[in-house]
Design brief:
With about 180 residues, the chain is mostly helical. The protein contains eight helices and no strands. The longest helix is centred in the last third of the chain and has 28 residues. It is flat, with a radius of gyration of 20 Å. It starts with a helix and ends in a 20-residue tail after the last helix.
Length: about 180
């Protein structure tokens, strides 16, 4: 019910200047509806979120510097991490989105969360089912890999700064002194 209320708020926005943003939010809502409605499959461990290889590698060795001797290779590794994790907090939105677009995305995400909550609330003993099915352990592994990826990205940006590299091999705000390494 909450999801439909949020979606109902998106529709009138299409008449104002943020109309395109609202329609994008509605499309995003439609695209994510199936995953939200089938969320109990995750609880029963019948469907698993795949962990990107770059995050598994970061989890295994977050401080590995093999083959990262140039700014370009550090930047490429950070780009792989950004692809798996999304943009870092020091980077502006890559899509140049407007506030109205981000608001529509947030409304869509809230509606999908409400649907996901509704579909999983009917499962009695949900926390025990998640533990017994292995879904909770997998969820913790996913979160661990995400944390390791964030840690690796921060470490690599620090290495990039130390080596006087320009972004993306360093934080977006960093300006190399003199000539940066290549």
């Amino acid at each position: 019910m909450r999801a439909f209320l949020v979606l109902a708020l998106l529709i009138p926005l299409s008449a104002c200047n943020a109309g395109g943003s609202a329609m994008d939010g509605a499309r995003q809502f439609g695209a994510g509806f199936g995953a939200a409605a089938t969320a109990p499959l995750d609880d029963l461990n019948l469907r698993r979120q795949q962990i990107p290889t770059v995050l598994l590698q970061a989890e295994a060795n977050p401080y590995d510097l093999r083959n990262l001797d140039r700014c370009a290779t550090i930047g490429a590794e950070i780009a792989r991490l950004n692809e798996a994790l999304g943009p870092d907090t020091d980077e502006p939105a890559a899509d140049g989105s407007y506030l109205s677009e981000r608001a529509a995305d947030a409304a869509s995400a809230a509606a999908l969360d409400a649907i996901r909550d509704t579909t999983t609330d009917f499962i009695p003993g949900r926390s025990w089912i998640r533990r017994l099915s292995g879904a909770e352990q997998h969820s913790q592994h996913v979160q661990s890999a995400i944390q390791a990826g964030r840690m690796r990205r921060a470490f690599l940006k620090g290495v990039g700064m130390q080596r006087n590299c320009a972004p993306p091999a360093a934080p977006g705000w960093f300006r190399p002194r003199g000539r940066s390494q290549r």
